[in-house]
Amino acid sequence: MADPIQLSEALDALGVPNATAVADSIAAAITALKGGVAGSGDTLKKLSDLIAAKPSSADVSTAITTAISALVNGAPGALDTLKEIADALAADEGALAALVTTVGTKAAILDTINTQTGTAYTLQASDAGKVVELNNAAAVTVTVPNTLAVGFNCILSQTGAGLVTVAAGAGATVNAQAGLKSPGQWGEMSLRVRANIGGTAAAAVLGGGVA
Fold this sequence. Notes:
The protein has helices spanning 4-13, 19-34, 44-53, 57-72, 82-91, 93-109; strands spanning 113-116, 120-122, 131-134, 140-144, 153-158, 164-168, 173-176, 188-196, 202-207. Helix 1 crosses helix 2 (19-34). With 211 residues, it is α/β, with parallel strands linked by helices. The strands form two sheets. A six-stranded mixed beta sheet has the order 1-3-5-8-9-7, with no helix packed on it. A three-stranded parallel beta sheet has the order 2-4-6, with no helix packed on it. The model has no long low-confidence stretch (mean pLDDT 83). The longest helix is centred in the middle third of the chain and has 17 residues, at 93-109. It has three domains: 4-53, no CATH class; 57-91, no CATH class; 110-207, Sandwich (Jelly Rolls). It is 37% helix and 22% strand. The protein contains six helices and nine strands. This is Phage tail protein. It comes from Brevundimonas subvibrioides (strain ATCC 15264 / DSM 4735 / LMG 14903 / NBRC 16000 / CB 81) (Caulobacter subvibrioides).
């Protein structure tokens, strides 16, 4: 924008009376019109450019829709809002709590050690998933009862000097590829129940034993 001196000279050249006063008035009017607008928008050309660069409502709508789609990321229609997700979690709260309890129970018995120091021990259902350590200087007999459920499994570990022999209780059977005795101190055998017809005929398989 021309300053007041330039305006005054231009007006004087045009023969306008009181050119200086008129130039000052014009400059003051322009300043008032701008009203402190920043330099990036203090001319009609700059204002026009700013308006042209401003996104349209359609552009804004498209950007919002794209952002929401990215957030949803292909979630099914029944779970594509925060309200629906919150309702689903609330409805499944009981099931989730039960699952957490079950997982916690399984984790608690994983690789738990049951130490036995006698010369005879009968496996219990609670030994499932445990390491049963047999620690005695004399020979130890471990009995497999006929009531152990299908899927029962444990590790039998000879930590004492006495050899461990696995025996089948009444109604139960124990099968092994090699034998039913531990290989020696610090030797371990695996035992699992593969079948139990009627719940009173546990059929177990022993691994790691010797004749």
